[in-house]
Amino acid sequence: MEQEPAKKLTALTIEAFKNITAEDVIILDTRPAGDFTAGFVPGSIFIGLEGRFEEWAAAILPANKNMVLITAPGAETATAGKLYRMGFDSIQGYLEGGFDTWVNAGEPVDLVIDIEADELAMDIPHDKNLLIVDVRRDTEFADGHVKGAVNIPLDELTDVAVIAEFDDHKNLYIHCAAGYRSVIAASLLKKHGLHNLRNIVGGWEEIKNQGKITVEKDKTAMN
């Protein structure tokens, strides 16, 4: 069982949530990836509890910033407990009632467009501005990737200088191995103002089995 958080976790009304997030605060959304892409509070960072949460929270989240949480109903304590044990002790609270409360109040919502590998295959020949961004580790990329894709490992997307190198006119198609890291990546890019993007559902596992998308390996990986 999850331990209780070391500190009392505050339930925030929408008004209190908005007041806190008017400052430079991390909004961390830990709902399942599919729920997040379907709609989220603008500016949120996604790191879902269903994946390697601790690993990516440690790699992505700044330790010195205040944080508010948006979780699946009933997951507030579990989320806070994990973060407290990792040393994140500046949690200001969680949105009471979760994302549904936000939507029902008529507050603004952002989303990430999910596409299947079949749609990527159809778009590649016709979109001159298409850029496939593979956020897997460089060793994963070397072992097989879409021809013409660029490899930017997820942990590098915390660097604003890296994000600044993206061309605003490009249509970004983001993928990882199976679809968890790519949603984290999409949330980071959206937070920094890049909205013309797609998340490839199922990631590399679906792409390599699609059959009409040209893939290749690095020569070093063939030895």
Largest β-sheet summary:
5 strands, parallel
Number of helices: 11
Taking pLDDT < 50 over at least 5 consecutive residues as the criterion, the unreliable ranges are 1-6
Assembly state: single chain
Structural class by SSE content: alpha/beta
Tell me how many strands there are: 12
Question: Roughly how many Å is the radius of gyration?
Answer: 18 Å
* Averaged pLDDT: 94
Amino-to-carboxy terminus distance? 46 Å
What string, H for helix and E for strand, traces the elements in order? EHEHEHEHEHEHEHEEHEHEHEH
- Report the β-strand fraction as a percent range: 15-25%
Gross morphology is elongated
Strands ordered across the widest β-sheet: 1-5-4-2-3
Describe the model.
The protein has 223 residues and is an alpha/beta fold. The protein is built from eleven helices and twelve strands. It has a five-stranded parallel β-sheet with strand order 1-5-4-2-3. Helix 6 packs across helix 10.
Features:
alpha/beta, 35% helix, 223 residues, disordered N terminus, 5-stranded parallel beta sheet
Secondary-structure map with pairings?
Elements: E1 11-12, H1 14-21, E2 26-29, H2 33-38, E3 45-46, H3 53-60, E4 67-70, H4 76-85, E5 91-95, H5 98-104, E6 113-115, H6 117-123, E7 130-134, H7 138-142, E8 145-146, E9 150-151, H8 160-164, E10 171-175, H9 181-191, E11 197-200, H10 203-210, E12 215-216, H11 219-222
Parallel strand pairs: 1-5, 2-3, 2-4, 4-5, 6-11, 7-9, 7-10, 10-11
Antiparallel strand pairs: 8-12
Helix pairs in contact: 6-10
